[in-house]
Structure to design on (126 residues):
């Protein structure tokens, strides 16, 4: 696995954990570390499913926005399904917030990375 792929995977994990941490902080609930992990695990599983789907179907890791979309969709869909299965909340407001925040996080860094690489390519070509 290349350094760029490892960095992308780690960044996705960190951003899902950040999403959970922000949510937990806004509700001021119990043990911070356990709470974040308890909130994040379904979305981490969903993110892993998304990575597997994209990598197996496209035979390349999800490093750009287009290939990041299935990662985002799986993170939310699988995450909510797992939360529902274990009896955790899936209120419509939470689904909406999770969809938006994870979309911004998981697609946003990919958009910025694509922009950075395109600028580097133009500078190299000049």
């Amino acid at each position: 696995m290349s350094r760029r792929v490892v960095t992308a995977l780690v960044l996705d994990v960190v951003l899902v954990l950040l999403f959970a941490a922000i949510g937990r902080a806004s509700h001021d609930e119990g043990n911070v570390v356990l709470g974040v992990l308890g909130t994040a695990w379904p979305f981490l599983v969903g993110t892993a499913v998304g990575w597997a789907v994209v990598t197996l179907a496209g035979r390349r890791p999800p490093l750009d926005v287009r290939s990041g979309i299935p990662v985002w969709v799986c993170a939310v869909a699988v995450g909510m399904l797992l939360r529902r299965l274990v009896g955790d909340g899936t209120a419509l407001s939470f689904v909406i917030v999770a969809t938006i925040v994870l979309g911004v996080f998981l697609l946003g860094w990919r958009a910025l990375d694509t922009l950075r690489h395109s600028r580097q390519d133009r500078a190299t070509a000049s």
Q: What stands out?
A: The mean pLDDT is 92. The helical segments are 3-27, 32-58, 65-85, 92-125. Residues 3-125 form one domain. The two ends are 31 Å apart (CA to CA).
